[in-house]
């Protein structure tokens, strides 16, 4: 696959910083998974001369340009006009695009306005790309050896249209097979070092950091047999060790909900420094209600005693951030909520509250289950929010290890 | 201020989608606040020819180019080399940069390695930009009417160095005054329509969507008197109405913690569909422990009854997602935790669980306080996570209005 791919994002809201461009990273990652490395990315605003220049510059660099944004009904939406100017053609109303718009509006029970009709004005010779997720049709134009695909900027529409119209076109010749290994608790730079010298049998190696986890991606060339893939995955698994928690599976919260619901197991949590973050992650997974029974945000010492049943003496003897308190939180909430598993988390998220013995970032975690309670401690670097995110992740990873 | 500013982001991890580029949006937003509109943005990888081409293209378009990334110690870090090639100069070891690196390592108690010494190799004629937040010095180079500022890609270093070295330089001539008005509960497109025709007395209007809130930003030209600014802010406040919750203040969670801690008031929460998200947001604010006493993630009906004291009959008579249950959650947790305020949240986040009478997105919120309990209901559009985020935001906004 030797296409030179360039991504062009358009929209004044990107140049004012109003919106973070997540589309480009999503596209780049999806392209990498298909075996395509993006050459460069450009971002342009809404002014027509700048936009025409950007389209030209992108098409100079790329044999395939994926452009997002600027297909809406308002006068700021000028992508079609810019592409027509670049290709040196006139725009005209595409009957195919118009009938797609009319069909879409009919299902929504709305009238097609003059502004919406404008969305059917496409450069001459354009191929219409159907949008079944929104009102703006996409299109592609070929000119001087380059193909530019224009998609809406709304992420859900852009993603679905990329999969429907572009991924298929790009992956016809050689489709690599992708294996996604999810890890927790080891920094990306350390993972990269660990992978040094591992025999990947020709597979490409990629990383994707998505706090608090890091994905290790293996891209196998076409024709790799399943047995060969398995052998590589096994070698990589051995190297990653306990850091690896899922192969081609969900994230930490999804893995926990899936594993527990399969066995009819239930979970309760008593969180101090994470203050509901762990519960909230679990509740984000559809079907969580079969597993997640109860959580207590035991932020004050009183609430640890009153609502989770932690012995007040354990707190006064050891301090609220300690192994005995983490264990008492896990055991207390498990007993109270009568669940298979109980999680307890206590820590010093900062910026205040640290001491020499217990610096900011000190976290104690415990998981209580059918065969006892397991404890883990760590000093987590980073700011208040990073400490809390990594502590929540560590608690879920510990639960998965307790079951594993 | 007539500088043409271009942002250039570098790093292979951006082109593989491994990392989302948040630096560019942060820079663009900070520049807008200073009265500078970014012309365009470019992203390049680590290969030297591509990088040199990107530097040239950025400097063709911009009189000021802000480049991030590629200043590290590894061989993939080639920004200095690329800038030297573009400017047609040799690189050499900068004694000023080297002594900054040595000073930094001394305070960290570490040795300067050969790789680290490489970070002092700068294009001839470069001005060194001190980095007090990390090890890689930045630099700027002037060539053919353009100035390129090179900063590290690590966000905390980049942000601090931008403020220290670039913002000051750009804002010497005309510094606008910025007023940031935070709103909740009204979509950005609707806010834009509401602002149509409001007399802004020459101020520029900007929006920044940061789910679940939208900021309305007013940028006043130099020389606007405080009285004139106040008059505009008052007119805009009138138009925004209840959607406005803070002028030049913090976000929803910060506003709640600030308002309550000032009066010595305390808060407890009983959350069902949001499942700890609201508590977790509050706990993210330093000093939250003076306000946030306890939260219960009352996900199951049993836990609503057992841990918050909701009457089981209220649930069986009205369903778990109902006004009486939201009110009983708020009142129950307030009584149990003995706090000034209690928040109750119950809703159907989806994708399952909806009915004709109670569609997915139905949320009931209640805030209980010294003078009674206030209830609010809404049907929130979006996916599971959007419903939960907006519900948590709505609960905090309701609390602020109850105190208002």
Q: What is the top-level CATH class of the largest domain in chain A?
A: Alpha Beta
CATH fourth-tier homologous superfamily of the largest domain in chain A: MoaB/Mog-like domain
The percentage helix of chain A is 40-55%
| Count of DSSP-assigned helices of chain A | 15
* Number of separate strands of chain A: 17
* Uncertain stretches of 5 or more adjacent residues of chain A: none
Summarize the largest interface: chains and residue counts: A-B, 74 and 74 residues
CATH topology of the largest domain in chain A: the name is: Molybdenum Cofactor Biosythetic Enzyme, Chain A
**What integer value in Å does the Rg of chain A equal?**
26 Å
Mean pLDDT across all residues of chain A, rounded? 92
Q: Please give the domain count of chain A.
A: 3
Examine the secondary-structure arrangement and name the CATH architecture of the largest domain in chain A: 3-Layer(aba) Sandwich
Main-sheet strand order of chain A equals 2-1-3-8-7-6
**Which class best fits the helix and strand makeup of chain A?**
alpha/beta
Major beta-sheet overview of chain A:
6 strands, mixed
Strand content of chain A: 15-25%
> What kind of oligomer do you see?
homodimer
In whole angstroms, the N-to-C terminal distance of chain A is 40 Å
Sum up the overall morphology of chain A in one term: elongated
SSE topology:
The structure is a homodimer of 404-residue chains.
Chain A: E1 5-10, H1 12-15, H2 23-33, E2 38-44, H3 48-61, E3 64-68, H4 79-87, E4 91-93, H5 95-108, H6 114-118, E5 121-123, E6 127-129, E7 138-143, E8 146-151, H7 155-170, E9 177-184, H8 188-195, E10 204-210, E11 213-220, H9 226-240, E12 244-247, H10 252-262, E13 267-271, H11 277-283, E14 292-297, H12 301-308, H13 312-318, H14 323-337, E15 341-347, E16 362-369, E17 372-379, H15 384-403
Parallel strand pairs in A: 1-2, 1-3, 3-8, 13-14, 13-15
Antiparallel strand pairs in A: 4-5, 6-7, 7-8, 9-11, 9-12, 10-11, 15-16, 16-17
Helix pairs in contact in A: 2-7, 3-4, 10-15
């Amino acid at each position: 696959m030797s296409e030179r791919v360039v991504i062009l994002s358009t929209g004044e809201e990107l140049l004012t910083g109003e919106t973070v461009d997540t589309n480009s990273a999503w596209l780049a990652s999806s392209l990498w998974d298909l075996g395509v490395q993006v050459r460069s990315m450009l971002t342009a605003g809404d002014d027509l001369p700048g936009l025409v220049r950007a389209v030209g510059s992108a098409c100079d660099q790329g044999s395939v340009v994926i452009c997002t944004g600027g297909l809406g009904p308002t006068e700021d939406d000028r992508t079609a006009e810019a592409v027509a100017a670049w290709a040196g053609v006139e725009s005209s109303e595409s009957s195919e695009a118009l009938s797609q718009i009319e069909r879409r509006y009919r299902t929504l029970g709305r009238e097609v306005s003059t502004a919406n009709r404008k969305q059917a004005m496409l450069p001459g010779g354009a191929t219409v790309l159907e949008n079944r997720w929104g009102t703006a049709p996409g299109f592609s134009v070929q000119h001087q050896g380059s193909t530019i695909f224009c998609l809406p900027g709304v992420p859900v529409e852009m993603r679905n249209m990329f999969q429907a119209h572009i991924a298929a076109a790009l992956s016809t010749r050689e489709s690599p097979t992708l294996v996604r290994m999810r890890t927790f608790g080891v920094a990306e730079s350390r993972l990269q070092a660990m992978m040094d010298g591992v025999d990947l049998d020709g597979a490409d190696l990629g990383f994707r950091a998505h706090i608090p986890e890091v994905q290790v991606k293996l891209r196998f060339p076409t024709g790799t047999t399943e047995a060969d893939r398995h052998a590589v995955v096994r070698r990589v698994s051995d190297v990653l060790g306990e850091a690896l928690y899922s192969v081609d599976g969900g994230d930490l919260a999804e893995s926990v909900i899936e594993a527990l619901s399969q066995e009819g197991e239930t979970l309760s949590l008593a969180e101090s420094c994470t203050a509901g973050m762990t519960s909230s992650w679990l509740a984000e997974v559809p079907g969580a209600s079969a597993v997640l029974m109860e959580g207590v945000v035991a932020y004050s010492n009183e609430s640890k005693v009153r609502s989770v049943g932690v012995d007040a003496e354990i707190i006064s003897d050891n301090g609220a951030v300690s192994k005995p308190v983490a264990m008492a939180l896990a055991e207390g909430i498990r007993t109270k909520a009568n669940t298979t598993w109980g999680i307890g988390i206590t820590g010093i998220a900062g910026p205040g509250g640290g001491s020499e013995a217990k610096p900011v970032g000190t976290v104690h975690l415990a998981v209580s289950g059918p065969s006892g309670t397991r404890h883990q401690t760590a000093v987590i670097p980073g700011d208040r929010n990073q400490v809390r995110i990594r502590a929540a992740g560590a608690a879920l990873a510990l639960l998965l290890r307790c079951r594993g």
